[in-house]
């Protein structure tokens, strides 16, 4: 009986300690590491969320930019940080899902070293052709594009913002699913690939959301979006999944992570506050300049990451893609 009472007392003490920790946190500033330059999508989202967390939790959440190596410098720093709740990572999907498949010298494990909190925004790609290009004037659907590629194996050229980037892998995944072979023309960035398709240098591009105004102006024709669901800005454009390729879902997302050893109460509280920030009407408008607001449970986020790593690794291996 006495042993049982002692055990109950220990459990009660642990519960009180955990609750007290959750109530106290944070007691000093929290650093949010961003692996990209100021002003980019990850930095913008990180600063919007940081302001909200600072105001709500009464301690400064300070964004620190450590740009370089496609986000790997900042990610490695967070992976090696103490799991005390005072170091956070804000990053994009490439840092987590692409780097592991493209780089052999990556010094962190995206699935083992981090505790995922949630995504905040997701920016799907838009599959576009140029209606003024005689070679694509009659291509109105994904099926039309696939038919054109099958009619001229290895002759249809598509562009992307660089070898191994998300637009490149998205087109390779579509090609693999459709059983076609197209020629990849890598440009120096998404803006350059957009110029390339407008100049009729390539026949198709998975473009970032910057393509939406060009689509609405009739300068580009949207065939599909890469996300599982339709894009609110282009409600009449189907997803690639709807166009005949179920399960196709590739987007450029921005999300938050903590070191794996961070206490569960801290993770739960930060998840709750970041989700609240994303759903705040005043902040939502600012976040939507970077994409579609999208939040996930931590478990769903982890499952999404595992699925994307597996899928993209298969694409990289099948297409023999090498990082630049």
Automatic annotation (TrEMBL):
UniProt entry keywords in alphabetical sequence: Signal
Upper taxonomic lineage: Bacteria, Pseudomonadati, Pseudomonadota, Alphaproteobacteria, Hyphomicrobiales
Endpoints of the signal sequence: 1-22
Family membership noted in the UniProt record: Belongs to the UPF0065 (bug) family.
This protein's record includes keyword Signal: yes
This protein's record includes keyword Signal: yes
Short name of one Pfam family: TctC
Name of protein: Tripartite-type tricarboxylate transporter, receptor component TctC
